[in-house]
Amino acid sequence: MKGEKKLLLVCATLPPLVIGSTVLLKNIFERYPGKIEAAAGWEYGAREDKNFRLPFKTHHLRFRPDLLQRILDRYKGLYFRIICWFLKGVFRRYRPDAVFAACTPDGLFFTASYLLARKYKIPFYAQMHDLWTENTKPGSFSESLAKKYEAEIFAYSKKVFCMTEVQRDYYRKRYPEIGFFMLPHCIPYSMLETGHQPAAPKGDKDEKLILYTGNISRAMNLDALQQLVACMDDLPSNFRVKMLIALSVEECKAHGIYHERIDYDWVSVEESRQIIRSADVLFLPLSFKNCSENEVRTVYATKTLDYLTSGVPILVYSPPDSFHSTDARANGWGYVVEEDSPGLLAESLIRLSENEEIRRSVLEGAKAELQRRNPETHANWLFEEVETV
Asked: What would the pLDDT profile of 333-348 be if each residue is shown by its tens digit?
């Protein structure tokens, strides 16, 4: 009978931690109509939101005190063995009929869940949040794990899901004998109907808020955020910039992203969405240099989902061959700046803040993009896939 098969969702982190991968998985799986449980680890220093939860049981591998987790993070081989032991207990208690595992760059939970799925002859679905081997540190345990198991896991998987067409095409070229499929980032279901209500236009002299939210990554966006700081003195005095990030002011100074005209804060997921709707421009950056070029080209930043539902125009600041730029140009959901120039960035922020024709065009594109990322559609499709294996 349909609905009897049990799915196990596995990722390095899941709610209540607020990290890109946890948001993406929650958006899809909170609409999953079948039997499901989840297993995940815990990331030291990650922000926790008590109201940010999955609607089903999650088994967390968490160490107290946090110092133990920090020690294990340095000894990945030992941590990997502990993860295998932890997941083995989850498998034995829950007895899943299929496993859906999301791959984050260290690959520990991803590989451990595959090894157990293979041992118990359980169908396995792989989801690539990022490129795997390419994002591991040379000489590290994570790199050795990726080089040993990446091709093997792909070959065993019922399906390997990619987050963007660029990522899919990258893997198809690398592994032409394996099929790769799209499972795109999805909008939070609750925001499909309530989101995207454009605010009334402001006057030229009114205060304008430029907003950035999310994590800071040296591989993906740190250099681009430094360019935002570099353009601050070219913005009019009525322009205010705010960053909702997990770093302290001291850490921002150390990373070269501090400016006295920028406000820094961290709030809950829901508070962040409220602030996003009050902005005039939402800043979506990827670095042009001093970054992981393959990751920049293939990634889709999680914050884009909340941006799309906000009713606020998005400024995409990224290289021309990145998925962000190509998709925003093709579907019109963002105003694209693809030249690494603080001066041009300042000009573009001003133009998008003040030009109502451009703002309307970008908002129309964003509204159309929402339906392409409906989580219920993709959750139901995944449910049917699992039920037929």
From this structure: 999 999 999 999 999 9
Cα(277)–Cα(387) distance, integer angstroms: 39
Q: Which residues of 76-98 are buried (b: 16+ CB within 10 A; e: fewer)?
A: beebbebbbebbeebbeebebbb
Render pLDDT for 239-261 as a digit per residue (tens, 0 to 9): 999 999 989 999 999 999 999 99
Taking the C-alpha atoms of residue 20 and residue 219, their distance in angstroms, rounded to an integer, is 15
Q: How many CB atoms lie within 10 A of CB 327?
A: 20
Contact between residue 42 and residue 61 where contact means Cβ atoms under 8 Å apart? yes
Of 11, 190, 248, 7, residue with least CA distance to 107: 11
Cis ω for the linkage preceding 55 (within 30 of 0): no
Residue 48 DSSP code: B
**Gap between the Cα atoms of 112 and 119, Å rounded:** 11
The owner of tokens 């070229």 is 173
Q: Distance (Å, rounded) from C-alpha 307 to C-alpha 123?
A: 35
Closest to 200 in 3D by CA, of 146, 118, 277, 305: 277
Around Cβ 354, how many Cβ atoms within 10 Å? Answer: 17
Question: What is the torsional sign of CA 139, 140, 144, 146?
Answer: negative
Decide if 188 contacts 375 (C-beta within 8 A): yes
SS3 242: strand
| Number of neighbouring beta carbons within 10 Å of residue 351 | 15
Residue 200's pLDDT band (boundaries 50, 70, 90)?
A: low
Does residue 138 have a cis peptide bond before it, meaning omega lies within 30 degrees of 0?
no
181 close to 160: Cβ distance less than 8 angstroms: yes
CA-to-CA distance for 229 and 252, rounded, in angstroms? 11
pLDDT digits (tens, 9 = 90+) for 48-103: 888 899 999 999 999 877 778 778 888 999 999 999 999 999 999 999 999 999 99
How far apart CA 329 and CA 327 sit, in angstroms, is: 5
**Residue that has been written with the tokens 């970054």 in this structure:** 291
Q: 25 with 9: CB under 8 angstroms?
A: yes
Q: Which residue has the tokens 């590989």?
A: 111
